[in-house]
Amino acid sequence: MATRTRRPRPCTYCPEPDADACVRTLRNEAGGAHIYAHQVCAAERGVTPLYLFVEESAPGAPR
Ligand SMILES: [Zn+2]
Hints:
By secondary structure, the protein is mainly beta. It has one helix at 39-44, and strands at residues 21-25, 34-37, 51-52.
């Protein structure tokens, strides 16, 4: 599994913290919030993540 970051991100599909993917973003007019989920939770629901969180200390990690 990918290394977890310490920043808490709730999963939209389950009560566990530390979601490691973003599955949805709201339009700016709707608040622009990003909706997070675990990769496994998204996969179970057939949702393709928009982007994944990578280890922030990894060199050359794209942002
Ligand atoms: Zn989850």
